[in-house]
Every structure is written in structure tokens, then in C-alpha cells.
Amino acid sequence: MNHSQLWLRWFSKLVVASTLGLIFAGALVKSHEVGLSVPDWPTTYGKHMFTFPFSDMVGGIFYEHLHRLIATAIGLMTIVLAVGLGFSDRPAWLKKLGYTALGAVILQGMLGGITVLYFLPPAVSIFHGMLAQGFLVITVIIAYMLSSEREKRIGKTSQDSRSILRPAYLFAGAVVVQLFLGALMRHTGSGLAIPDFPTVCGGWLPMFDAAFMDRINEFMFDNDFNTVSLSQVWMHYLHRVGALAVLVFSGYFLVSIFKDGNTSLYSSGFGIAVVILMQIALGAAAIWSFRNPIITSLHVVNGAALLLLTALTILRIRPIPHS
Fold first, then answer.
1. What's the pLDDT tens digit per position in 158-177?
2. What is this structure's pTM?
């Protein structure tokens, strides 16, 4: 890489970090249930986004408007990244990936507007959340392709290490499915459909019968929560099953990493293990705290961090060639 393009290497990493911040800001909006605190779009109470007074950013408006400001900043950063790649000496496919990132962030902004204008339709909100995860992966690939680490790894990954790609892909698939189930649960109001953990309405296996639902909704009524339907309970339970699947596949993947003996991958393995333990703790704390907004939002962004680490590890196992 030319010295004149070193800024692009560091800027790409800044975009990745900022995207995690944006996911956290978006999670705060949903966790506080303030997605309609600013009822118009792209304006904010009739004012241009950047002219809306900070003194009026109170209550739910603070979270929603802050989310819009950060999203706009990410959009501008993605334009800079795409243009920078376009004028670089990087391969054509990487330049196209930069343009794809730009298209994704534009679509993401439009979906955000649609969620407001159409009063938070769950399907659009779920797609909005999953597209954010996809955009994060795209930025990770770009940043890794520009990194000095990748240059050092090219040609040095042993053929034996390629054998751990299968458990890596299985684990990555489980993480993506779990992120989708989490988005489905959040955007259908199912986050507390099973209000205890690790038990399920006092037992270890759900019965899904009338008595089971009566016990859950009695708890909801006593604690001033909205009652839930059987479908909501199923969505919540599937997210727990998904969490177990992620744990199992992570074990398979991590054992494969350490059995492989490639010490350069150990840091990735330890990182994934730590993030998974944090995710379990945050998921439990979210239920025990009755969906505390900060804890719930940290659970969301930690899930995104797990996806980031998974994508990064796969790239470390099999670095993409220049062309």
C-alpha cells in the first residue's frame, strides 16, 4: 500500500468501530421504545436534522435524534471510504465492495425512514436491524483487506488450518440465525415473553398449554407488563434454543482452533470465548432486570461484536488473495 493511502487503512477501521457505535445507538432506541418520539423523517419536528436544537433533545427525542445523527455520520464516512477505495490501487472487486457498502448504508437510511413513516412495521424493522449486521461484515472485510496483518498472513496459513473452515462456517451460520431470532423477538415485543431464566416459567421445559400461558400472563399482569401470546412465547423460546446452538457450535469451532495448533488464531479463539460468555451474562441480566435498556442494548451490540469476530477469524484462516 502506498504511504499516501495509509489513511484509508486507519479510516476503514474507524468505520467498523463507528458502525458498532451506531448499532448500539439503534439498540437504545428500541430498548427505550422511543422509535416514534420523532414522528417525521427526514426532518426532525419540521427542522433540518442538523439545525434541530440540542436543547430540545430530551427524553426519547434524544435517543432517536442521536441515532439519526450518528447514522448520517456513518453515511458520510462510507462515501469517503468508497471514494478512497475507488482512487486506490486495490483490486476491482474490493472497490466494488466499497460501492456495495455505500449502497447498503443508503438503503439502511431509507429503511430507517420507512420504519418511522409507517409506524415501526416489524418486518421492516427486522430487515433494518439485519442489514446493519450485514453492513458491519462488509466493513470488516474491507478493513481486513487493507490491513497490514493480512499482508503478513497471505501464503502463511497452512493447508491444515483450512480444515477448520467447516466449523467456522457452521458457527457463523448459527450466529447469523441467532441474530435474526433476536431481532424477531425484539421487534415483536417478545423480549419478556418468558420472564425467568434459566428456567422457563419455573420449569426446565415449556409446556405451551393453557396453564403455562396463564402463569406467564399472571406474572405480566402482576408486574404491569403487557400480556403475551403463544406466538410471542415461541419466538422468545426459539431465541433461547438458538443461544444454545451458538454455544454448541462455538465449542466445536474453538476446539478445532486449539487442536489445529496454529497459535496465530488463538487470540481469535479467546476473543470469541470471552464475547460469548459476556453475551450469555448480558442475556440473563436483560431478563432478570426486566429488559433494562442499557443492558439490553449492550446485549445487542455484543452480538454484533461476536459476528465481527467470527468474520475476522474466518478471514484470518483464509485470507482473500489480491485478485
1. 555 678 999 999 999 999 99
2. 0.94
